[in-house]
From TrEMBL:
Keywords for this protein: DNA damage, Transferase
Pfam family, one: IMS
CDD domains recorded: PolY_like
TM region(s), chain numbering: none
InterPro entries assigned to the protein according to its UniProt record, in alphabetical order: DNA/RNA_pol_sf (IPR043502), SulA_CellDiv_inhibitor (IPR050356), UmuC (IPR001126)
Organism: Sandarakinorhabdus cyanobacteriorum
Protein name, per record: Nucleotidyltransferase
Length: 494
């Protein structure tokens, strides 16, 4: 289903209280080479012949009493996205079609509204209540549906050449050949069209004729698990919304259990009767499908919103989607209670994340890099984490707990230039090395450098006379990469 909104720029401004009513000619203008040119107009202005492309001076000469406002394509795009989110009430697969249209994949959705005709009528009625003129159309491909909605008609063959190409040069060349409609172009050999106008025109023609499948790239990806609830009368109380959310959670719990999955993210959309869509989402540290836990997380999240939910005239539709899922098997608690403690920690993380916001709680996560200072990073608490390497039983850790960023230079005395350190000076203090282990050689990331440059590091774990342990490295291989390798201290062991 395609919904063309030909008067969206003007009607968007008319909806604002400070703008004139729909009976006053309204012109939206933009500067073009020093002149003010009409880019959009409302129905009253179009009825008097004030069309886009006309100079503002000429329009005022013909109709002096007009209202003028600046043309705002960014505002129109934001309004179109807002309408697209509201259109997800009819189908989760919705895409805005700039500059003034919506594409909705209603496959398998029409029966929920009593058929395609009822669905189209509901869409037109709701958008009309918002003050927008709508031209709907149905077709097998998005291009055909939008062309029929924009130019009217029932058959694609009867559409004008503008539906095939927006380039005036292409349209003029087709008219010179005696062609006026898409159907006339379709009867020509494809090879002749491609040789004269290129493959792009042939592809556009096939899409209009519904001969080539054209997938719809939706504004929001479809969730693998979802549930929705409609209300005959809009609900506005917090208790009614919470009761509806609980029933939705029960519905998705049944679906997740059947799949052996749990949700990592639960997104609630509240569709208000005036077209506004309020969205609230919670995320969990581990896969979850327990209704009581999720309901408590939603309570925490709604209570922490900076912009509280405003039901207005009430919500007539609620939809709960689970876009992120993961395997979740039934867990057996151990006798020692360790699993219970881990579950309580996960629940605490979920509640804090719901109250403070995603990303506020952070932890160190392991990165896939052999460079020590790049082997970890700060990640949001609750994200899947890779296991940290564990030393062999009885062996000391291979990496220190504390790293210096950047590594600090030191002065080292060694028996030979490429041998282990015997003494080093750090922060004006001399340390005698009583034990050492190494070297651990770490090569530079030559593949990330344009010239392939980079020095090798030889790391040593050393212990001084007072029992303190340090992590030192020599930067550069002697006589192979540099004539004077430098030494650094990179970390301290506990």
């Amino acid at each position: 289903m395609a919904l063309a909104l030909p008067l969206l720029p003007a009607e968007r401004l008319t909806r604002a209280a400070s703008r004139p009513d729909a009976e006053t000619p309204l012109l939206l203008v933009a500067s073009d080479r020093g002149r003010q040119i009409i880019r959009a107009a409302n129905q009253a202005a179009l009825a008097q012949g004030l069309t886009p492309g006309l100079a503002l001076a000429d329009a005022r000469a013909a109709v002096p009493d007009v209202a003028v406002a600046p043309f705002d394509p960014d505002g129109d795009a934001a309004c179109l996205d807002w309408l697209a989110r509201g259109a997800t009430r009819w189908s989760p697969l919705v895409r805005p079609c700039p500059p003034h249209g919506l594409l909705i994949d209603i496959t398998g959705c029409a029966h929920l509204f009593g058929g395609e005709a009822s669905l189209v009528a509901d869409a037109v009625t709701r958008l009309a209540r918002l003050g927008f003129t709508v031209q709907p159309a149905l077709a097998a491909t998005p291009a055909a549906a939008m062309a029929l909605a924009r130019f009217g008609g029932v058959r694609v063959d009867d559409l004008p050449l503008a539906a095939l190409s927006e380039l005036e040069s292409v349209q003029q060349a087709l008219r010179r050949a005696g062609l006026r409609r898409v159907g006339e172009v379709a009867r020509l050999p494809r090879s002749a069209i491609a040789s004269r106008f290129g493959e792009a025109l042939v592809a556009a023609l096939d899409q209009l004729l519904q001969a080539t499948p054209e997938p719809l790239n939706p504004l929001l990806p479809a969730a693998p698990v979802a549930a929705q609830r409609r209300f005959a009368q809009p609900v506005a109380s917090h208790e009614a919304v919470r009761a509806g959310l609980q029933k939705l959670l029960l519905a998705v719990q049944v679906k997740l259990t059947a799949l052996g999955q749990g949700g990592r993210r639960f997104a609630l959309a509240l569709y208000r009767a005036d077209g506004h869509v309020a969205e609230v989402a919670v995320e969990t540290a581990a896969p979850q499908r327990d209704v009581a836990v999720l309901l408590r997380l939603f309570d925490e999240r709604i209570a922490a919103l900076n912009d509280p939910l405003d039901p207005g005239f009430g919500y007539d539709l609620m939809r709960l989607a689970v876009p992120d899922t993961a395997p979740l098997a039934e867990a057996q608690l151990g006798l020692d209670g360790g699993a219970l403690a881990e579950t309580q920690l996960t629940a605490l993380v979920d509640r804090l994340s719901a109250r403070l916001g995603r990303g506020r709680l952070q932890r160190l996560a392991r990165a896939d890099s052999h460079i020590p200072e790049q082997a970890s990073f700060l990640a949001a608490l609750g994200e899947p984490a890779a296991d940290w390497p564990r030393p062999d039983p009885g062996e000391p850790p291979a990496r220190p707990i504390r790293l210096f960023d950047p590594p600090q230079p030191i002065e080292v005395l060694a028996e030979v230039p490429d041998g282990p350190p015997r003494r080093f000076r750090w922060r004006a203090r001399v340390h005698d090395v009583t034990a050492h282990e190494g070297p651990e050689r770490i090569a530079a990331q030559w593949w990330r450098r344009k010239d392939g440059a980079g020095l090798t590091r030889d790391y040593w774990r050393v212990e001084d006379g007072e029992g303190r342990r340090y992590w030192l490295f020599r930067h550069g291989l002697y006589e192979r990469e540099t004539a004077a390798p430098r030494w650094y201290i990179h970390g301290l062991f506990a």
